[in-house]
Amino acid sequence: MPCHAMGKPMQNGFVESFNGRMRDELLNETMFRNLAHARIVIRDWAHDYNTNRPHSALGYKTPEAFAKCLIPATDCHAAPHESSARQTVAKLAPKGVSTGKALVQAG
Asked: Cβ(13)–Cβ(19) under 8 Å?
């Protein structure tokens, strides 16, 4: 068990800000007809939030534009790839190097 209390709003202001905005702009204003309708409306709102709205905390860039500029420790851009398949984190072993007895198997 972690020594800090999980789930307190003051521990992640960004998430609380997002939750409040989504609640005010979407959830409190929309009467969902069914689960399928809710999924469509929420997907569309999230797409608009991430691709069309500049955010002051991101230097007035959209989250999508900001993510394209990030290069994490894996030396890959943070923007999603075209494929939904999981991308490898580690580079392939050089030719001639056997990975058959690796401590942790890939997959």
From this structure: no
Phi-psi region of 60 (alpha: psi -120 to 50; beta: other; left: phi over 0): left
CA–CA separation, 21 and 63 (whole Å):
15
Question: Who contacts 80 (Cβ-Cβ below 8 Å, separation ≥6)?
Answer: none
Among 2, 17, 4, 9, CA closest to 57: 17
Q: Is this structure's pTM higher than 0.70? A: no
The tens digit of pLDDT for each residue in 56-93 reads 888 899 988 888 887 665 666 555 656 555 655 566 66
Q: What share of the chain is helix, strand, coil (3-state, %, to 5)?
A: 40, 0, 55
Q: Rounded to whole angstroms, how far apart are CA atoms 64 and 80?
A: 9
